[in-house]
Amino acid sequence: MTATPPATGMPPIARAVALAAGAAAIVGVVLLAFAWPAVTSEPQGLPVGVVGPDASVAQTTEMLETQAGDALLLTREDDRDAAVAAIERREIYGAIVLGDNPAEVPEVVVATAANAQVAQMLQGVADGMQQQIDAQMRMATEAAIAQRSADPAAASTPFTIPHAEVVVTDVVPFSESDPRGAKLSVAAFPLVLGGIAGAVLISFGVRRSAHRIVALVAYGVFGGLLLGGILQGMFGALQGSYWTNAAAIGLALVAITAPIVGLRSLIGTPGIGIGAVLIMLVANPISAATMPAEFLLSPWGAIGQWFPPGAGATLLKELSYFPDASKAFPWAVLAGWTAVGVLLTAIAVVRERGTTAPANDPELVPAG
Predict the structure, then answer these.
(1) What CATH class has 46-170?
(2) CA gap 258, 210 in Å, rounded
(3) Is 162 or 127 the better-scoring residue by pLDDT?
(4) Pairing of strands 94-97, 107-110
(5) What DSSP character marks residue 173?
(6) Where in the chain is the domain with CATH 3.40.190?
(7) Cβ-Cβ contacts under 8 Å for 39 (sequence gap 6 or more)
(8) Concatenated DSSP letters of 230-291
(9) Residue 16 confidence class, pLDDT cut points 50, 70, 90
């Protein structure tokens, strides 16, 4: 009879319990990563333009501080045209246009395509201004009625109840094919997932690091053309030039995929885990793909724009709806992450060439 070797390490039951606890901890971390931005989101310092004379601006600023607290950050604009231009450049989310005299009805300018939540907030501002105007009109009407009652001669003259309505103008709405921007918002997560999945497939499906660089380029081209066709041609979620949108999507995919592939090429399988955690649990929740960066706790909203998910989502929105906005920063962020990934892979290529290829690996044996 063969003797049973003495048990070493953790007992099987204890090991099973430890693994279960570890799995639960991982689920908890994932839940915190995805739920934290939504639970803690609160508007802070949303830039909104204001146009009008100093006295009206001061009165409106005081009203908004009481109504919205620190949610809005008012910036003076020269006139309505300047405010609209600033909205189209994505410098502000909307504007409040006050008349040159108190008798003029104000206008609230919004851009739903910038963010529907902010546009709804500004609609609430317009409602508050409307209530204030209605109260003033009601007081003026009551005073006029009291005067007519006291003066029989005035009672015979025609009397019209005044009415004024705050105008809300959407200068950058979503397209008719995506009126609420839902299709554009849901595209963000598949890009993240696709980038990670592509990294896994390329890392394990292509053995030589040099060939992985070729695979990254091909993945960006094919992925950009395919996803661009789906999002723009089938769903109507993207507007503008199909080729430019396809290039942006392809670069966003590669910006996620390349660093993970580079880490895998350089340090082995753990590199995939490090890259995936960085993108999925850090970069994606703070990407501001579905909410303004100002809704996230400072400075996480701004930090999120330095990662591929945030830069990619911003770039696609600006290409579709804000052609006047500067797009240099998101293009540079995506190109930078792509370059880092390619550089890591290139280092692995140099290292491979400096070592002797195993004889039993046909892909690593030099030809000839």
Answers:
(1) alpha beta
(2) 13
(3) 127
(4) antiparallel
(5) P
(6) 46-170
(7) none
(8) IIIIIS----S-HHHHHHHHHHHHHHHHHHHHHHHHHH-THHHHHHHHIIIIIITTTS-SSS
(9) confident
